[in-house]
Amino acid sequence: MLPIGGGLIWKFSASSVAEEITATVKRANLTITVTERGELESSKTIDARCEVEGYQNKIVSILPEGTKVKGPGWFWWEPGQIVVTFDREKLKTDYLTKDSTYKTAVGKAKAAKGELEVQTNKAEGEVADAKLALDLAELDRDKYLGRDSTLVKQLTIVGMVGNRPAGLWPSVAHVAFYHRPIAGEYQADVNEKNGDIELAKKDLSEAKEKLEQYRKLVKKGFGTPENLRAYELNVSNKEFVLTCKEAKLKVLLDFMRKRTETELTAKASEAARKLDRAKKAGAAAIDKAQSDLEAAEAAARVEKQALDRINEQLDKCIVRAPADGVLVYSKDRWYDPSSRIQAGAMVHQMQTLFQLPDLARMQVKVKIHESMVKKVHKGQKADISIESLPGTILHGTVEKVGILADTMGYWDQGGVKEYVTIVKLDDLPEDAGINPGMTAQVKILANELSDVLMVPVQAVAEKEGKHYAYINGLVSAERIEVEVGETNEKFVEIKSGLNEKQKVLLDARSRLTAETKADEKKNQPDEELKAGEKKKAEKKEDAKPAPSAPAPVQAAPVAIAPGK
Description:
The protein is of the alpha+beta class. Among the domains are: 2-44 and 358-512, Elongation Factor Tu (Ef-tu), domain 3 (Beta Barrel), CATH 2.40.30; 102-147 and 182-311. Helix content is 44%, strand content 24%. The chain has helices at residues 14-19, 89-145, 150-162, 172-178, 185-220, 225-316, 508-543, and strands at residues 2-4, 7-9, 22-24, 26-42, 45-49, 57-62, 68-69, 82-86, 318-320, 325-326, 328-329, 346-347, 352-357, 362-369, 381-386, 393-401, 418-425, 439-456, 461-463, 466-472, 477-487, 491-496, 503-505. The strands form 6 sheets. Strands 4-14-17-16-15-18 form a 6-stranded antiparallel barrel. Strands 9-8-6-12 form a 4-stranded antiparallel β-sheet. The relative contact order is 0.16. The model is unreliable at 1-18 and 548-564 (pLDDT under 50).
């Protein structure tokens, strides 16, 4: 075995080639690689999705795939190039309908605002009227009873505090005014009636004096009985007037004061209740108007949001390029021709329309078989060969190893488990001319074992979980059980069972298969003999007579006595 170009070439003699192909167990460095074919893609891709709501958005116009598009510029008046346009007729109709609804809602909100102002003004007026009625009722009551009303007392206290001299105590004038005696209508009536009574008493007294003087004149013979009778009638009249005035005073003191005070107090209380009702009714009316205004404004905001959303949907019917690049349309459902991104196709919201790959940042997506994926780890180096660049070896690094298997779906009857692995290109040349979708072969350098025993993979065969190798014995080939380690496409590591420079045969699999078939043929006559003996034993069992059934038991005869 000669090392050439980093590999190994096995050299055989002419006699050995004619008889058996062998190889020598050699100690050398074993490079473990994982080789798979994959597809080029961009490591940085900008996706453009359909943002129009719904599941039946019809594409009206679209640029051809592969077109170089220009993204937005530095200024707002330099938007990106238009790539896709959707049908907008239905959205325009919805916009006009929603605009009418929005204007109606705005009108209702303005009317509700005006109603709130009216109710506020009305409540203030009703409260002011009720407050005036209460003040007048209290004034009428206090005027009759002869005391200051609450309003007058409050104003007096304000004046006492505001116009007091230096110090804490108010002026004597203010205190005297606050505690001054007040003559009300009731007291005025009492005083008037007392005055009338005093005048009546005085008139009665004068009438009695005149009557006495006239009686003296009559006794002296100067008066006439008619005049004396007139004086007596005048006294009686004065007494009657006095009695009437005293009766009126008694009615005022005992009945009219209490009645009038009760009536005026009730009117003041009713005015206070009316004021309270006016305040509560006004507050309720204002709250209702405020609630109506808030509801109308909320409805207007909702309609405005719906109108703005439709307007945004109209704007989103035009899809522009978000950056400079080459158009690559989505092929998520490549198996469904109706899902192709083309004019007249129906797409749904958030469906990917196209991609803008960055051709300066490329990677290879490969699928590693489950038996090899445990050897692949992030950060391992790889050699990459691209079919469009023959003779060029690029270098890359394992960027990501899939955690979950990527199966074909429910139709994948083979049950093959593969794991998606991303290998990033490290030395992509400028203007290489490679595009996403090209085929590449990736050789991942998984491990390198130094100074290990190894043989070609053809020298080892497996049976029932054990590995075997064949060497030339004294008479024929001899099978030896070996323990294997790592392996690549050409060589396998031998941990035990073979020694360095020992010759091994390279047809281990065919020899193991032949031995297995020979063992099966040897075991076949023994199995046939056992099967024949089993059949003979079954026939003997069938030939044995069946056991006879027991005889039936007869009843003993019974003697019958002769008849008499």
